[in-house]
Design brief:
The complex is a heterodimer of chains A (271) and B (254).
Chain A lengths: L7 H14 L11 H15 L3 H10 L12 H15 L6 H40 L4 H28 L1 H9 L2 H24 L7 E3 L5 E3 H9 L3 H15 L4 H18 L3
Antiparallel strand pairs in A: 1-2
Helix pairs in contact in A: 1-2, 1-6, 2-3, 2-4, 4-5, 4-6, 5-6, 5-8, 6-7
Chain B lengths: L4 H15 L14 H12 L2 H14 L14 H14 L4 H14 L1 H23 L5 H38 L3 H13 L1 H12 L5 H12 L5 H28 L1
Helix pairs in contact in B: 1-2, 1-4, 1-7, 2-3, 2-4, 3-4, 3-5, 3-9, 4-5, 4-7, 5-8, 6-7
Classes of the chains: A mainly alpha (271), B mainly alpha (254).
Chain lengths: 271, 254
């Protein structure tokens, strides 16, 4: 077995296949299996010259795989490094590959979904929705540019770190606590901004008024709530919905409940 | 306003694009979001600012929605493209647009389920080709058949809804009184609570929730812009994590 080395462009080609087509053939049976094999294709063709070896390598990467495509890239980086070692004579079994892939994909999906879908995207959206709402067309444009820069940077550096440092890179991400500190700090920013959105997008006000006689009218909203805490109704509504989400009521069901609740309270003139 | 078939087809095409791989995986984080969907639909229909405003409103409802492990709760993208298109064509206000876009997004979930089911067959096709030794076919199978399928199940329904939907909406509007429109406004004001609550489920805990109350206060009482609120948020977040860090490394030294 001769010295089989990957050059940087092989690794980048492999990353790009994944970055483009990770979810292209997303399916219930094996989720991202064909996308993983597709990403490995340039690497495998470079490392193995024997058709039988190429076939075996593709087969081991057509197994069930599912992770968060941006942060999960580190797994591919590690896998590419392992394939390179194996091509150079290190005895790595198919089970070892599968063990690494299935062992890492769950935890990284958890971290990745929290970071990309739970923290970065909602915060960027909240800010850019706020910009848009001031009649500024820059809102969606800034959002698109920012998302491309942030997501491409994370995905590429995850992949390259995985390739360079192997499993060490993953251990650093998982145990060093660095990513958790980022998520924690972003969560503070996120909850504050969510509060700002509540104030802007849930303009619910009590419509009740009481005639106190002698020409004076008491309005529950302007004469009482606005003097205590003006955002009281949106706050209470959001907390009730949050409680129901935590109790496991499905979002689709909650949409129905909110539409029904809005229709009843709106028709009765409560809001 | 009237929508031409070409405009409807263009909106349908961007809806397809938002689920496709052609803008890299970041397409899912941009074109797929109602804010961007509304903006693009607005450009196609000649009202970019209205489109962006309607998309922004719809997006708040779906703010905390997470697609994970193959589960998809509603289709924010369909709600964004079709909802904004119907709203601009039928001249609806933002909260009415929000109220009608939610059922659209919910029904469109069947498109996702159809795609995820049929795609399973392509995996077996890839298995067979690799077994035969045609490893290059995996790239083709991962891209071409699922994209043809996706195009059929996304472009066609979206185009039809945008093209034929407005007459249904107009028929509905003609029987609506001011009272009914008020009800739509109340519904539109309640739905954002869901998107925000779903996000808080993930990032809200006993430590961060007080900041949520502070955020409401800054917006409602002090009428602050989101930009200013987020700058305050960055300052607070940096301060707190620096404080936590220094106390941790301090303990480490002792």
């Amino acid at each position: 077995m001769s010295n089989q080395k990957l050059v940087k462009s092989d690794v980048i080609k492999s990353w790009f296949n994944w970055f483009m087509f990770a979810q292209s053939n997303y399916n219930y049976e094996r989720l991202q299996a064909t996308a993983f094999a597709h990403a490995m294709l340039p690497v495998i063709k470079k490392l193995y010259k024997e058709p039988a070896e190429q076939k075996a390598a593709m087969q081991r990467h057509l197994s069930f795989f599912n992770t968060e495509p941006i942060c999960g890239s580190v797994i591919h980086g590690v896998t590419v490094a392992m394939e390179e070692e194996r091509a150079n004579g290190k005895p790595i079994t198919d089970q070892a590959f599968n063990g690494i892939k299935t062992g890492l994909m769950g935890p990284l999906a958890g971290i990745g979904d929290t970071l990309t879908q739970g923290v970065i995207t909602p915060i960027m959206l909240a800010i850019c929705i706020g910009i848009t709402n001031n009649n500024n067309i820059a809102g969606p444009i800034i959002f698109i540019l920012a998302q491309f820069i942030i997501m491409t940077t994370i995905s590429f550096s995850m992949w390259m770190n995985g390739y360079k440092y192997g499993r060490l890179a993953v251990e650093q991400i998982m145990s060093g606590g660095k990513i958790n500190r980022v998520i924690e700090a972003a969560s503070i920013l996120g909850t504050l901004v969510m509060g700002g959105l509540v104030g802007r997008f849930i303009p619910l006000q009590f419509a009740f008024t009481f005639d106190l006689g002698a020409g004076s009218i008491f309005s529950l909203q302007t004469d009482l709530l606005d003097k205590l805490f003006p955002g009281m109704i949106p706050l209470v509504l959001t907390l009730v919905v949050l409680k129901m989400v935590k109790a496991g009521v499905s979002p689709i069901k909650l949409m129905g409940i909110l539409i029904l609740f809005g229709a009843i309270t709106g028709a009765l003139g409560i809001f | 306003m009237e929508v031409s078939f070409f405009q409807a087809a263009l909106i349908g095409f961007f809806y397809y694009l938002s689920w496709s791989p052609w803008c890299t995986y970041v397409g899912f984080f941009t074109l797929n979001r109602p804010l961007v969907a509304g903006f693009i639909t607005g450009i196609i229909l000649g009202h970019p600012m209205e489109g962006a405003l309607i998309g922004a409103g719809i997006n708040v409802i779906y703010l905390g929605f997470i697609s994970a492990g193959g589960a998809q709760m509603g289709d924010p993208s369909f709600a964004g493209y079709a909802g904004t298109a119907l709203a601009i064509i039928s001249n609806l206000d933002v909260s009415t647009a929000m109220a009608i876009s939610v059922p659209l997004g919910t029904i469109a979930t069947v498109l996702w389920i159809a795609k995820m089911t049929v795609n399973s067959f392509f995996v077996h096709w890839a298995d067979r080709e690799v077994e035969k030794g045609n490893i290059n076919r995996v790239a083709f199978i991962n891209v071409v058949p699922p994209q043809i399928l996706l195009f059929v199940v996304s472009f066609i329904p979206a185009t039809l809804v945008v093209y034929y939907g407005p007459s249904a909406v107009n028929g509905m509007l003609s029987i609506l009184t001011d009272n009914v429109l008020h009800v739509f406004n109340v519904i539109g004001a309640m739905l954002p609570a869901l998107g925000i609550a779903m996000n808080l489920k993930l990032i809200g805990n006993s430590f961060t929730m007080p900041f949520f109350v502070l955020g409401i206060l800054l917006a409602v009482q002090f009428k602050m812009d989101i930009i200013i609120i987020s700058i305050i948020g960055v300052v607070i977040a940096l301060t707190i994590s620096a404080m936590k860090n220094s106390s941790q490394s301090g303990e480490g030294r002792m």
